[in-house]
DNA sequence: CGCTGACCCTGACGGC
DNA sequence: TGCCGTCAGGGTCAGC
């Protein structure tokens, strides 16, 4: 579920419930995430005020005066605001109890996410080598062009590389490549500046549009209903293998690139 | 340095 | 029904 648009939607959803609130207590029911939840996390966080909730790529940063809580949702994670008294269910691994009887509840069946602490004065190692935000002015076609020279790997893997640009997951990589008419298997180093300009523009457009959808459809997700699928009707490629291309009717092909399924139209994408 | 594949884990789904 | 293989939005890391 969590591609960048959903992480941003989560941020916007939880931010008003967290900013200015004090953490009263943290309950870690299962610390076995992608990396173990540090033993000191609960005591470090307790008593602190959350001063801001930020996002970097697909990471969420809960800022306090002494540092930040770094959260990643992995493949199956979610954060919800629930009443403090609400009974936790299966896979509800962590509760951050805030004043005002609210609770920030972390749910993650596959446990690929993380809950880590970074003290003030440094940047967490996981964030240090990240590329620019896709929706910022720092990200454009020229950057893609420059970084891709001499790279022989597929362009799809290239734009999903967090050191190049953050937040482009499998769904939107497929979509952006379709919209820009670029074959996902094409070598990254063999694409012109002009086509990279178009690709960067398509990445921005598809992410922006998905965030807008998320903001509309998941408006009440804080209440507990965060079903995915809101963007599905607008997908041109992802999940449509074997179905006709919405533009030309050619049956869409599927192929694995870098261990991820890639769907594309042999007619529209070159 | 760039690329490939293994790995972390649970659950859903299709075929038999 | 049930069992088995395959696949799933993420990202890191070792090894070549």
Keywords summarizing the entry:
single chain; alpha+beta; N-terminal domain of MutM-like DNA repair proteins; four-stranded antiparallel sheet; 10 strands; DNA-binding
What does this molecule look like?
With 270 residues, this protein is an alpha+beta fold. The chain folds into two domains: 4-124, N-terminal domain of MutM-like DNA repair proteins, CATH 3.20.190; 141-264, Helicase, Ruva Protein, domain 3 (Orthogonal Bundle), CATH 1.10.8. 27% of the residues lie in helices and 21% in strands. The protein is built from seven helices and ten strands. The protein has helices at 4-18, 41-45, 125-128, 141-148, 155-159, 170-180, 193-217; strands at residues 23-28, 52-56, 59-64, 67-72, 78-83, 92-98, 102-107, 114-119, 253-257, 260-264. The strands form three sheets. Strands 1-6-7-5 form a four-stranded antiparallel sheet. Helix 1 packs across helix 7, helix 4 crosses helix 7 and helix 6 crosses helix 7 (193-217). The longest helix has 25 residues, at 193-217. The protein binds a DNA duplex (16 and 16 nucleotides) through residues 1-3, 6, 32-34, 58, 72-77, 91, 108-114, 126, 150-153, 157, 162, 169-172, 228, 238, 258-261.
């Amino acid at each position: 579920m969590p591609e960048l648009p959903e992480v941003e939607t989560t941020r916007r959803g939880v931010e008003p419930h967290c900013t200015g609130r004090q953490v009263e207590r943290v309950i870690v029911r299962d610390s076995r995430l992608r990396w173990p939840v540090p033993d000191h996390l609960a005591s470090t966080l307790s008593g602190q005020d959350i001063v801001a909730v930020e996002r970097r790529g697909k990471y969420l940063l809960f800022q306090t005066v002494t540092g930040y809580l770094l959260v990643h949702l992995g493949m199956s994670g979610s954060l919800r605001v629930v009443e403090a008294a609400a009974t936790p269910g299966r896979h509800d691994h962590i509760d951050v109890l805030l004043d005002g009887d609210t609770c920030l509840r972390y749910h993650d069946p596959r446990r690929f996410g993380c809950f880590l602490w970074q003290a003030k004065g440094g940047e967490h190692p996981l964030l240090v080598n990240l590329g620019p935000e896709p929706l910022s002015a720092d990200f454009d076609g020229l950057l893609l062009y420059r970084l891709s020279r001499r790279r022989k790997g597929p362009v799809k893997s290239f734009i999903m590389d967090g050191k190049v640009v953050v937040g482009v997951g499998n769904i939107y990589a497929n979509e952006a490549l379709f919209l820009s008419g670029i074959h996902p298997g094409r070598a990254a180093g063999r694409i012109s500046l002009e086509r990279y300009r178009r690709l960067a523009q398509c990445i921005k457009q598809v992410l922006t549009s998905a965030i807008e959808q998320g903001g509309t459809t998941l408006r009440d997700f804080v209440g507990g209903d965060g079903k995915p699928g809101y963007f599905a009707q607008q997908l041109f490629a992802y999940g449509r293998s074997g179905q006709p291309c919405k533009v030309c009717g050619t049956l869409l092909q599927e192929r694995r690139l870098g261990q991820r399924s890639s769907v594309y139209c042999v007619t529209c994408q070159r």
